[in-house]
Amino acid sequence: xxxxxxxxxxxxxxxxxxxxxxxxxxxxxxxxxxxxxxxxxxxxxxxxxxxxxxxxxxxxxxxxxxxxxxxxxxxxxxxxxxxxxxxxxxxxxxxxxxxxxxxxxxxxxxxxxxxxxxxxxxxxxxxxxxxxxxxxxxxxxxxxxxxxxxxxxxxxxxxxxxxxxxxxxxxxxxxxxxxxxxxxxxxxxxxxxxxxxxxxxxxxxxxxxxxxxxxxxxxxxxxxxxxxxxxxxxxxxxxxxxxxxxxxxxxxxxxxxxxxxxxxxxxxxxxxxxxxxxxxxxxxxxxxxxxxxxxxxxxxxxxxxxxxxxxxxxxxxxxxxxxxxxxxxxxxxxxxxxxxxxxxxxxxxxxxxxxxxxxxxxxxxxxxxxxxxxxxxxxxxxxxxxxxxxxxxxxxxxxxxxxxxxxxxxxxxxxxxxxxxxxxxxxxxxxxxxxxxxxxxxxxxxxxxxxxxxxxxxxxxxxxxxxxxxxxxxxxxxxxxxxxxxxxxxxxxxxxxxxxxxxxxxxxxxxxxxxxxxxxxxxxxxxxxxxxxxxxxxxxxxxxxxxxxxxxxxxxxxxxxxxxxxxxxxxxxxxxxxxxxxxxxxxxxxxxxxxxxxxxxxxxxxxxxxxxxxxxxxxxxxxxxxxxxxxxxxxxxxxxxxxxxxxxxxxxxxxxxxxxxxxxxxxxxxxxxxxxxxxxxxxxxxxxxxxxxxxxxxxxxxxxxxxxxxxxxxxxxxxxxxxxxxxxxxxxxxxxxxxxxxxxxxxxxxxxxxxxxxxxxxxxxxxxxxxxxxx
Length: 775
Prior knowledge:
The structure is a single chain. The chain has about 775 residues and is of the alpha+beta class. It has 12 helices and 34 strands. The chain has a 17-stranded antiparallel β-sheet. An 8-stranded antiparallel β-sheet has the order 20-23-24-25-27-26-22-21. Strand 26 and strand 27 form a beta hairpin.
């Protein structure tokens, strides 16, 4: 390997490892610290080099000798492999790095993860242990991004057998598992040392068992769906007890109180005279069993790109190169090619003397692009994506982030309601000083300035409070409505999985605001650009840049010192119109397709550049304004050294048939129906904008089409759009990413580029897909 490329690769690997470490450290700083051992790669590799592949072959009942040698391969889809290799697959010990950041280091057998190894996710989650045929199978340790850790038996990716799980909130469980949930006998202990030992069924307490409270009170008897049901005895430490039949609703409740023989009547009457069986159910309601984190993608689902010689061809339909669909776009192709081999499937040798596949076919296969060509017959009608459930999980009592939500709501209520002079839009330079922040202590018992609350003591920080108060005024946000949305009686909702950056997202119940956890580097970037950001919004009311309403930090005190930083921003898709399609558009092509098959795409799926099959046609009165504002917004971000931002676009189709098909303009079904109305006076750019979209198709050609060709098929729509993710500096990690990917691909096709080049490419792309509607 060329020395320069080797140095860049090592730097890139170090950056990836550092990213994993930072993500894990960040998750631990939020949810608690759990440590886990890692595979010592160099030592492991040294021991495996001579006998690793033979041992794995013996375990799989194979005696066929394979010629094993060391290989280092850069896959055209962006993946990377280094390690032992045999024929056309990893075999022995090796490391495979997927483009999305997932990585496996360990034993392989004919392309399957088999033996011992470590699999890590971009979020910071890791699994270290035994694998079989690509599955987590055997004994292993899984540490989630939020700090939960499971150590025990696995069968085909599921916890099965005996296992110990510790939760980030201090709880732990030791006992039997079946099909990934607690079932059989086990002990669960809460952080206050109250514990249950007994039978479980389908993840809940059910059967015979004993619950011991931290104060010594104890219930022993039968349980159903997590509560006492049937015969049982409640005992006090002084020897008194209540025995009988238990029922949560009280209808079948029947029992007898028995005083302790060591107490006289006066003492006994004083202690438990007013006790009611319902008090047990009330006490138990505060003890919730922790839930596990859902793994976004399982190791067995990560497919490999397998080597295939270019001396043959292969017919058949194009297939995805990897499960995430993020594949290569490089213009400098290797003379050899790769095809999709399922995780562990050995490739079928191509028939001899078959001409190689056309270059355009290979591009289509690598990119997973839907190629449509009118010459092959009429195009299929477009269908609206399937309906999606309401996004997010409600954060209620017992949720791992329940206290964090309470702290956030208490802090925002305090910040917004705190008496302050009338916010002037003419701010002094000192208001933008990064050191301009206010700390407030929130003890549980309350203070002169803060109310009492049920969570542990914490500190609350407001960054540049004067600036964000002025921004809320500029955005015409009523303080009472703002507090009601975030701090009202309705709980926040946590999105089901963290974003690619490792941040967690929360939505208010009315969908008006989105709350995102922030990295320290993002906070610094925002504070640095805050003066220019504020001036930009004062100058251009129609700017499409993300609106930020507040920047805060929660610091937990006591023996656990950790900080969680939050940014509050508007939810782009909150509207009276249902959003049918969502696109995240950057103007780059590498990895810019969705990772979901067509059947799984719903209204909330975020599609990308190469999934886009429309051109947006704006009314003449708004198109000129749109062009000017894109130029201004990109100029701001370029001057602040920002890159990797996107235009987030939501489409509401105004006409959908009962069969779920999109109805084009001019269809007989639309005769007599109103056309798109013009924007109301004073409407903001990108908010409930009437427009039309024209369908496009990508045709086979010698060059990849980032934007398809329009075919004259129009649809009436309502658009929402705005520029998001504006806090990414072109820092050392992005420079290394650019250097590494530029070796393999055309540098203009990747996202990580210099802010000036990024701005120019972004503008050019946006103005290709947004045009004036001249009709």
